[in-house]
Amino acid sequence: MTARRISSTTSLTASKRIAAGFALLFIGATLTFAAGFSSMAVAHNTAHDTRHAIGFPCH
Amino acid sequence: MIGRVILAVLLSGIAAGLVMGVIQHVRLTPLILEAEAFERAGSPAGHSHDAAAPQPGQPDGDGQGHDHEHDHGEGWTPETGWQRTLATTVTAAMTGAGFAAILAGLSLLAGLRITRRNGIIWGLCGFLAVTLAPAAGLPPELPGMAAADLFSRQVWWAGAVAATAAGIYLIATQKRVFVMVLAALLILAPHIVGAPVAPHGENLIPAELIARFVASSIAANAVLWSVIGLLLGLVLDHTAKDIYAT
Questions:
Q1: Do B75 and A21 touch (CB under 8 A)?
Q2: Which among A44, B60, B146, B224 has most CB atoms closer than 10 A?
Q3: Could you tell me if A13 lies within 8 Å of chain B, comparing CB atoms?
């Protein structure tokens, strides 16, 4: 009984960790793509100096 | 709970990105403006939009009275001055938040905690993977530098980052010798493949300016990543202890 309860608590926390991890990875990839890679003219022009400063390939 | 962690991570990244924004404003953007003056002066038919291109060595310091400061054709472009400074600051904050979120996301997925004590190491590993390793093949560029096709550079850049990060992960978490060899091969692989090579002799920018920019950019990114690592350690110690604890 106790063992079962412990294991279910553990898997609940683990799935939170995985969910938070994927959410952060998705948000981070989206922000990084928009700032560093998007070929949309407006995105490029706005992020121009930052792309050069960070070292993203630009132009 | 998860929302609190995500918010804390994003705020850390934004703060680090704002530090980067200040460094950019003081040390990097002036060099970019100088390079753009050379770029305009050197390619009369190409990028410039007006006849009054400044002479090399005279960057348009005050930023007044130029309609399209930089070149890339269509779309809204922030005007040099407060618009451009604001755009650069906002995108620096975005980049900081993006990097911080990816680093924290990988830490959570791998179950390896970022703490106050090891945060700077995490940050510097990010610097190695995202700044230093790609810079060995594709150094930070100034406008007007000769460069290979954009998409192939982006692919190589992303590949170098991923391979270096994977190699660092293996070195940090594994013990067996063959895994170490594999990690070394992963880190070397992009450089054995080789970055896309720039066409020869199309460079409009003085080498001295490029050298200053490359050194300043790499140093600035070291600061960015150190601050990201430190702040992530601080906030994750407070918000994510129980999420990690499995």
A1: no
A2: B224
A3: yes
